[in-house]
Amino acid sequence: MYEQYFTDFGSIGSAAEVWIDKEKGLVKKFFKPNSLTITKKMPIFQEYSKVKELFENEIYWSTKLKSKLVVETYEYGELKNEPGFYLIQEYLGPDLLHYKPVKEYFPTVVDQLVEMFALFKEHNVYKKNNAMANLTGKNGQIKAFDFKWAVPRSEDAKKYEVNSLHTWLAKIDKDIPSILMEYI
Ligand SMILES: Nc1ncnc2c1ncn2[C@@H]1O[C@H](COP(=O)(O)OP(=O)(O)O)[C@@H](O)[C@H]1O
Ligand SMILES: [Mg+2]
């Protein structure tokens, strides 16, 4: 049974409405102007055109980066009864903010992040929101999700990617920013 997911740890960039079916291992997300996001607030953007743009970006990059390091998306489309979109993706467990310390549950997390950032480099993308809130995993394997802010690499966008290493991923291991810099 799908239950709506709420948390107080949400980022300011909340845009999606998230429903989780733990037994079936599925997440259903709604991208719509009047969604109720994980922090019980309205989405950061409420114009239909912006919602559509974010949704399409999410699908574009999660399809392009499809691999063992990215959460699988099973289905997506337009809503029939109201303006907006939905997607259904895999649920492996909660995001990495729920595992303390992360390295105890995911002992090879640093090596896996190196692989993940090598993949991002290969596809010339900056994901920009590399935070524990946008990573999940199971049996020691991590996977990324939430690609709505991803952009083709540019000098301008580089600072956001660098910043995400220092602000968020460094909390997993303080050496992560220096280890990952060569892939940025
Ligand atoms: N596939 C997933 N597996 C586990 N948790 C998820 C998944 N998708 C979303 N969540 C939870 O919902 C939160 C919000 O989803 P997300 O796609 O990051 O949207 P937004 O950043 O717009 O709020 C995530 O930070 C995470 O806690
Ligand atoms: Mg997110």
Primary descriptors:
184 residues, alpha+beta, 5-stranded antiparallel beta sheet, binds magnesium ion
How are the secondary structure elements laid out?
Blueprint: E1 3-4, E2 17-21, E3 26-31, H1 48-64, E4 73-78, E5 85-90, H2 102-105, H3 109-122, E6 125-126, E7 135-138, E8 141-144, E9 151-152, H4 155-167, H5 176-180
Antiparallel strand pairs: 1-2, 2-3, 3-5, 4-5, 6-9, 7-8
The structure holds adenosine-5'-diphosphate (ADP) and magnesium ion.
Adenosine-5'-diphosphate binds at residues 5, 7, 10-11, 13-16, 18, 27, 29, 37-38, 71, 89, 91, 94-95, 133-134, 136, 145-146.
Account of the 3D structure:
By secondary structure, the chain is α+β, with helices and mostly antiparallel strands. The protein binds adenosine-5'-diphosphate and magnesium ion.
Name the overall outline: globular
The neighbouring-strand order within the major sheet is 1-2-3-5-4
Which kinds of small molecule does this entry bind, naming each only once? adenosine-5'-diphosphate, magnesium ion
Tell me roughly what share of residues is in helical segments: 25-40%
Q: What is the end-to-end distance?
A: 40 Å
Strand count, sense and closure of the main sheet?
5 strands, antiparallel
- Rg of Cα set: 16 Å
Helix count equals 5
Q: Tally the beta strands.
A: 9
Task: Return residue spans where pLDDT drops below 50 for at least 5 consecutive residues.
Answer: none
> Order of SSEs, N→C?
EEEHEEHHEEEEHH
Structural class: alpha+beta
Strand content: 15-25%
Compute the average pLDDT.
95
